[in-house]
Write a structure and sequence with these properties.
The protein is mainly alpha-helical and about 110 residues long. The chain is built from six helices and two strands, in the order H-H-H-H-H-H-E-E. The protein has one domain. The protein is globular, with a radius of gyration of 12 Å. A two-stranded antiparallel sheet has the order 1-2.
Protein backbone atom coordinates (compact mmCIF):
# COMPACT_ATOMS: atom_id res chain seq x y z
CA UNK A 1 0.00 0.00 0.00
CA UNK A 2 1.36 3.40 -0.92
CA UNK A 3 0.37 6.18 1.45
CA UNK A 4 1.07 9.71 0.24
CA UNK A 5 1.89 12.54 2.64
CA UNK A 6 0.55 13.35 6.05
CA UNK A 7 -3.10 13.13 4.93
CA UNK A 8 -2.72 9.47 4.03
CA UNK A 9 -0.84 8.76 7.23
CA UNK A 10 -3.39 10.60 9.37
CA UNK A 11 -6.17 8.68 7.67
CA UNK A 12 -4.39 5.45 8.45
CA UNK A 13 -4.36 6.42 12.11
CA UNK A 14 -8.06 7.32 11.90
CA UNK A 15 -8.65 3.93 10.35
CA UNK A 16 -6.68 2.13 13.03
CA UNK A 17 -8.57 3.72 15.87
CA UNK A 18 -11.81 3.17 14.00
CA UNK A 19 -11.26 -0.48 13.39
CA UNK A 20 -10.20 -1.07 16.96
CA UNK A 21 -13.90 -1.28 17.72
CA UNK A 22 -14.18 -4.19 15.29
CA UNK A 23 -11.12 -6.19 16.33
CA UNK A 24 -12.91 -9.10 17.95
CA UNK A 25 -15.43 -9.89 15.20
CA UNK A 26 -13.02 -9.34 12.30
CA UNK A 27 -11.49 -12.35 10.62
CA UNK A 28 -7.75 -11.77 10.63
CA UNK A 29 -5.39 -12.77 7.87
CA UNK A 30 -8.07 -13.17 5.22
CA UNK A 31 -7.23 -10.07 3.20
CA UNK A 32 -4.88 -9.79 0.27
CA UNK A 33 -2.59 -6.79 -0.27
CA UNK A 34 -4.86 -5.59 -3.07
CA UNK A 35 -7.92 -5.84 -0.79
CA UNK A 36 -6.09 -3.83 1.89
CA UNK A 37 -5.15 -1.17 -0.63
CA UNK A 38 -8.71 -0.95 -1.92
CA UNK A 39 -10.11 -0.71 1.61
CA UNK A 40 -7.64 2.02 2.55
CA UNK A 41 -8.26 3.99 -0.66
CA UNK A 42 -12.01 3.93 -0.01
CA UNK A 43 -11.43 5.02 3.58
CA UNK A 44 -9.23 7.94 2.53
CA UNK A 45 -11.87 9.11 0.07
CA UNK A 46 -14.71 8.84 2.61
CA UNK A 47 -12.97 10.28 5.68
CA UNK A 48 -10.62 13.03 4.53
CA UNK A 49 -12.79 15.94 5.73
CA UNK A 50 -13.20 14.35 9.17
CA UNK A 51 -9.44 13.96 9.54
CA UNK A 52 -8.27 17.21 7.92
CA UNK A 53 -10.85 19.60 9.32
CA UNK A 54 -11.95 17.66 12.37
CA UNK A 55 -15.57 17.43 11.26
CA UNK A 56 -17.98 14.79 12.45
CA UNK A 57 -17.46 11.72 10.24
CA UNK A 58 -20.01 11.22 7.48
CA UNK A 59 -22.21 8.12 7.35
CA UNK A 60 -20.02 6.84 4.49
CA UNK A 61 -16.85 7.42 6.54
CA UNK A 62 -18.33 5.58 9.52
CA UNK A 63 -19.28 2.66 7.29
CA UNK A 64 -15.74 2.49 5.86
CA UNK A 65 -14.29 2.57 9.37
CA UNK A 66 -16.47 -0.38 10.37
CA UNK A 67 -15.60 -2.59 7.38
CA UNK A 68 -11.87 -1.92 6.93
CA UNK A 69 -9.67 -4.65 8.41
CA UNK A 70 -7.36 -3.79 11.29
CA UNK A 71 -4.56 -5.95 9.89
CA UNK A 72 -4.38 -3.60 6.91
CA UNK A 73 -3.66 -0.55 9.06
CA UNK A 74 -1.72 -1.50 12.21
CA UNK A 75 1.59 -1.96 10.38
CA UNK A 76 1.47 1.71 9.35
CA UNK A 77 1.09 3.12 12.85
CA UNK A 78 4.64 4.27 13.51
CA UNK A 79 5.57 6.84 16.18
CA UNK A 80 5.62 9.50 13.44
CA UNK A 81 2.09 8.59 12.33
CA UNK A 82 0.82 8.51 15.91
CA UNK A 83 2.03 12.09 16.41
CA UNK A 84 0.27 13.53 13.36
CA UNK A 85 -3.21 13.87 14.80
CA UNK A 86 -4.50 13.96 18.36
CA UNK A 87 -5.61 10.53 19.53
CA UNK A 88 -8.31 12.05 21.74
CA UNK A 89 -9.92 13.86 18.80
CA UNK A 90 -9.77 10.73 16.71
CA UNK A 91 -11.44 8.70 19.44
CA UNK A 92 -14.23 11.32 19.66
CA UNK A 93 -14.71 11.09 15.91
CA UNK A 94 -15.02 7.32 16.11
CA UNK A 95 -17.49 7.67 18.94
CA UNK A 96 -19.35 10.05 16.62
CA UNK A 97 -19.85 6.98 14.43
CA UNK A 98 -21.72 5.37 17.32
CA UNK A 99 -18.83 3.08 18.24
CA UNK A 100 -16.93 2.66 21.47
CA UNK A 101 -13.15 2.40 21.49
CA UNK A 102 -11.55 -0.33 23.64
CA UNK A 103 -9.23 0.80 26.41
CA UNK A 104 -5.55 -0.18 26.47
CA UNK A 105 -5.61 -1.64 22.96
CA UNK A 106 -2.21 -1.70 21.24
CA UNK A 107 -1.97 -1.30 17.49
CA UNK A 108 1.37 -0.38 15.99
CA UNK A 109 2.82 2.48 18.04
CA UNK A 110 -0.40 3.55 19.74
CA UNK A 111 -2.21 2.29 22.78
CA UNK A 112 -5.64 3.69 23.52
CA UNK A 113 -6.05 5.38 26.91
CA UNK A 114 -6.94 3.32 29.98
Amino acid sequence: MKVVGSLGVALCLFLVVGVLVEVVPMAEGNTTPSQCKQETDLLVSACKSAVIIGLKPSANCCQRVRVTHVECACPYVTPKVANLIPLGRTIKQIEGCGRSVPRNFKCGSITTPP
